[in-house]
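Sequence in, structure out.
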Amino acid sequence: MIKAPEPGLYRTTAAYPGQEEAIPANVLVYVGARDNGTPFVVRPGQNRRNRWFWGEPVIVLRSMSWTETLKRLPAQGFYSLPEDLTISGGGRWLKNAIVQLGYNGEGRGILFVAEDHDKETRNVLVFSDKGMLIDDKLLARLTWAPILPVRGDDATG
């Protein structure tokens, strides 16, 4: 068995040999491992709330040389901005603003800024479904913002 990359998100820089149509160059992929340890790669399935979700079918990783061409990406989730960010058309997002990091199908980072809606009755932040594409330099400088995930019946409010 090959030594696979760490599980997580990657951008391909070369097509997967023998699976060029399924896994071309310059796309977002997830690398993981089955319960038995078999490494796999998969393209995104669904996008909900600015996050990609994955599913079958997956492709078993057999090419170690190809895995070395992958570009590791930060996890989807919440971060703070390392600097003010000027928005095209006017306006700006301030340093330390809470943002949600997502990706497009090409594995390029997209930021969605947290909004506090004054008509919202619950004490929640809202993230638009329209974000701003960012370059890899800014992507690398984002600071993780640990937000407590609350599921289903555990939610308050």
